[in-house]
Amino acid sequence: MNPQRNRGKVNLKAALILGSVMGVLIVAAGVGWYVRKASMLRNARIEGRQAYEQGDWETAARSLRRYLLSRPDDTEILRAYADANLRVRPLERPNLAAAMDGYERLIRLEPDSVEPYEALCRLYSETGDHGRMAYLARQRLKQAPGDPQATLWLGDALVATHRADAAGEARTLLTALVARLEAQPDPQDSHAPACRLLAELERRRYPSNPTRAAGEGLAWLARA
User: Are 136 and 151 contacting, i.e. CB atoms less than 8 angstroms apart?
Assistant: First the structure.
């Protein structure tokens, strides 16, 4: 019998055994990593939800962020995350940016849902970002043509720019909206704000004739 051949068989068998052991260890390590990660995510979600329900907004925002880094499409948690960031006091710029990012992601995930549009338009209005507010309102109108609330958001953003071209577009949009709402048996909540915006537009329309400006503005306010 050839001793060298026997040694070759032994080495091959040892290599096969070692390869099998290494494969098992690699699989075990992968499973262990997955289990640990799943456990960490579950804990972050639970901790974040509990903190949110208890009004601990900083902890909620921090824990839910950790969870969303691996589960960015969880819309329920995205809502809680955005809201928690807005409730942190004092409200810092990173919290505001995180809330906006959360609502933007919600819009991408649920384009038919009005809630994130409403929250984001309100934030854009409060921060003076009327350009993005107008863009977002137009995007909503593509999803829901003629939507009174989205039309009001767009009108509000256009009025806030103080530009003549924007004022003309806003006047056309809002006048049509008011006429449509007044034709209904029970005008919606958008009616009064639309009339107030139109009153503001009329007051600006005649800077050299304050009497007429006031009269035109009051006429719209009387319809509010």
Answer: no
Please tell me the distance from the alpha carbon of residue 142 to that of residue 39, in angstroms, as a whole number. 41
The token pair at 2 is 């050839």
Inter-residue long-range contacts of 69-72, CB under 8 Å, 24+ positions, other chains counted: 70/37, 70/41, 71/41, 71/45, 72/105
- Cα–Cα distance, 117 to 138 (Å, whole number): 11
Contact 155, 177 (CB under 8 A): yes
- Selection from 192, 186, 185, 201 nearest residue 221 by Cα: 192
Q: What separation, in Å, do the N-terminal and C-terminal C-alpha atoms of the chain show?
A: 107
**pTM of the predicted structure, to 2 decimals:** 0.78
Q: Report d(CA 102, CA 113) in Å as an integer.
A: 14
- Write a three-state SS string for 149-177: HHHHHHHHHHHHHCCHHHHHHHHHHHHHH
pLDDT < 50: residue spans in the chain: 25, 28-35
211, HSE (Cβ side, Cα atoms, 13 Å): 0
pLDDT of residue 185: 84
